[in-house]
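Fig. S4 source data, part A: sequence.
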Amino acid sequence: MNTNLITAALSLAGTGVPVLPLSRGKRPVGNCPSCTGTACGGRPNMLSAGACVCPAPCHGWAAATTDPDVITSTAWAGAWRVAAGVAYHPGGADLTVVDLDNPDVVAWARTTLPPTRTVATTRGEHWLYRGTMPSANAVRPGVDIKSTMSYARWLGPGTGTLVPLPEAVRELAARQSAAARPAPQAVPVPVGGGECRHRTPAFLERGIAMAEQRITEASSGVHATVYATFLAVLATHGRCGCLTETHIARLFAAAQAKGERPRHCTDAWTNARTRLGV
């Protein structure tokens, strides 16, 4: 087991940065036996926690955590044995990373974007800004934006002073073509049609109340907890049409009370629905 990686992960987590193990191929390592070596077939990316059917996200951005007990747990031990690096969830640390993939786009950034903290990479640089936004790939050739629902490799603290996320970076994503970025979606209530297994309204009410409590009691990894909770609610109540706008609003309110932004809630809900096909 690479104790240096665990030490680095714990140090980062202690500063409020959610972390996860990263493989040599720069992919998140599965943190449970079923997903070790991506045996589940999941390929975590910025839009999902993976295609696995585990009770909770065990790899990808949604599994990133600041909880030292999780990082050093038996469940994660196998992941650290094969890990080659540490990744982190920028959005969970209130950060946005502009990933500049080559010297040409680094030169472009120096004449276009406000100076901020920079981290050298193998081919270019990461520019870190304080604040979050939806992640987006290929906003221009050689430039990705990693923030919410994404992960980045930890390559050190970098140099320079961290500054607030500028509109120039948000505009990059706004100008991205529809082919490169899915169009924003509303948060629909699941359409009925399946058999209702709930029998009494009390079953649904108890489920929503338990989901609210789970989110409210989260002491770390709020992004991951919100996503996992939405996933659990939809897995149980998402196919028969019992959920209403009021139920969804209650879940969103609980998440926002923990610091989640409305857009984060929308993204998590939409992606949970996509993963379950509801």
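Fig. S4 source data, part B ends here. The two ends are 40 Å apart (CA to CA).
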